[in-house]
């Protein structure tokens, strides 16, 4: 056995040495922990904010319905420009006939024509300016809404202007107060409508607050708005696999009715969600990358402070080398100190980030601000690597100290 060969430093002794080194300079250690924690916490909370935004947008579009295909009048090209608009042409209107034609496919479950307008609704001396939706009985299942009381629009021909209305909860309270609303009459413009149902509260969804909305038959809405055109046509496919075939069918069916002109824009729910998911995913990575810069700043701080620490502990390092510590063991001790510091800072940063994300969720309940699981693993790894990499220079500086000169503090 070679007795001149230095013994390896046990990992328990290395950990004890690193802990004692950090505990011996509490103010310096606290400042480095705070720097690392701010970097880690920033990454966690900003990625949580990005994921929350993505979850919110996904939820909003999911609330529109399932397997949805939306038909808009006018052709939107890839460049977002309608060529006809350059020459003063207006897009061909969508009509109730177009909507009825879209029910002729076995892949289509429901079709809900839609008109939207702003109207004044009154009952007795009370009146409100609200959003009016004109549609058919299929709108309720297509949008996945529910009724609180009464019934939704009855099943009838789409061109029948029956004087019935479904109102939101807030509108009911403001027009009828403590009185019962079902069966009562209200006025929209110069026409009277009987309230047959109260919508369940769903809040705001893609700009429409169902609590402050009135829904009437689409033919009645067209009469009130003095138009024969539709704002949109909502088409529900029978399954997710049917979405693309339904999209192709819609374009072909409308083109056949419009003398071969493909003059509508057909948007699938999956395409919109995919686009937003890509955009918000990139945004999450971007803000996470920006926040990660603070980790590099924390690493530079660790390097500077460790260089100062090496100069302050020259005698201690000289003593270690005098009793047989090799340069490799000195480097191991310094890197262990930096690793422990980075790990504790990362844990503190995770706690800070999670607390901030919780604060966001409490302040904005509609925003599911949860950091993605991969961020936690990545940010701890990056913090550890940053601390170690930026401590290599101080460690090598300590390893090159001459023990005699170090003990003499020279």
UniProtKB/TrEMBL annotation:
Residues 29-251 form the MacB-like periplasmic core domain. Keywords: Cell membrane, Membrane, Transmembrane, Transmembrane helix. It is a multi-pass membrane protein. GO terms for molecular function: transmembrane transporter activity. One of its GO terms (cellular component) is plasma membrane. The chain crosses the membrane at residues 30-49, 279-309, 330-353, 373-393. InterPro entries: ABC3_permease_C, MacB_PCD, Macrolide_Exporter_MacB. It holds the Pfam family FtsX. It is found in: Cell membrane. Residues 290-403 form the ABC3 transporter permease C-terminal domain. Belongs to the ABC-4 integral membrane protein family. PANTHER family: ABC TRANSPORTER PERMEASE YTRF (PTHR30572:SF4), MEMBRANE COMPONENT OF TRANSPORTER-RELATED (PTHR30572). This is ABC transporter permease protein. It comes from Pseudohaliea rubra DSM 19751.
């Amino acid at each position: 056995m070679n007795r001149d060969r230095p013994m390896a430093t046990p990992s328990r002794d290395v950990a004890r040495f690193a802990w004692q080194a950090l505990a011996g300079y509490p103010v310096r250690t606290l400042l480095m922990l705070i720097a690392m924690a701010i970097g880690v916490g920033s990454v966690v909370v900003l990625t949580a904010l990005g994921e929350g935004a993505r979850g919110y947008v996904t939820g909003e579009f999911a609330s529109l319905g399932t397997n949805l295909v939306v038909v808009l009048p006018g052709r939107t090209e890839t460049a977002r420009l309608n060529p006809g608009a350059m020459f003063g042409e207006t897009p061909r209107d969508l009509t109730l006939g177009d909507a009825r034609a879209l029910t002729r496919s076995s892949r289509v479950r429901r079709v809900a024509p839609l008109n939207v307008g702003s109207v004044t609704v009154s009952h007795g001396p009370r009146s409100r300016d609200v959003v009016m939706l004109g549609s058919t009985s299929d709108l309720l299942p297509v949008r996945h809404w529910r009724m609180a009381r009464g019934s939704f629009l009855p099943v009838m021909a789409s061109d029948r202007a029956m004087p019935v209305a479904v109102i939101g909860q807030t509108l009911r309270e403001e027009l009828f107060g403590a009185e019962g609303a079902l069966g009562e009459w209200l006025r929209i413009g110069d026409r009277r409508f009987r309230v047959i149902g109260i919508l369940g509260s769903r809040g705001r969804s893609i700009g429409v607050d169902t609590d402050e909305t009135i829904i009437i038959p689409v033919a009645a809405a067209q009469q009130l708005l003095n138009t024969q055109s539709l704002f949109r046509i909502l088409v529900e496919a029978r399954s997710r696999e049917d979405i693309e075939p339904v999209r192709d069918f819609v374009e072909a069916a409308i083109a056949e009715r419009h003398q071969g002109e493909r003059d509508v824009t057909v948007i699938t729910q999956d395409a919109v969600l995919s686009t937003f998911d890509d955009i918000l995913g990139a945004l999450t990575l971007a803000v996470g990358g920006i926040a990660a810069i603070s980790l590099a700043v924390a690493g530079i701080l660790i390097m500077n402070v460790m260089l100062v620490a090496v100069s302050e502990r020259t005698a201690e390092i000289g003593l270690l080398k005098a009793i047989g510590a090799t340069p490799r063991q000195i480097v191991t001790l310094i890197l262990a100190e930096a690793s422990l510091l980075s790990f504790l800072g990362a844990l503190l940063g995770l706690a800070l980030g999670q607390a901030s994300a919780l604060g966001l969720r409490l302040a904005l309940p509609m925003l599911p601000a949860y950091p993605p699981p991969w961020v936690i693993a990545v940010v701890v790894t990056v913090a550890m690597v940053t601390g170690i990499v930026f401590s290599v220079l101080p460690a090598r500086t300590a390893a090159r100290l001459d023990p005699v000169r170090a003990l003499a503090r020279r």
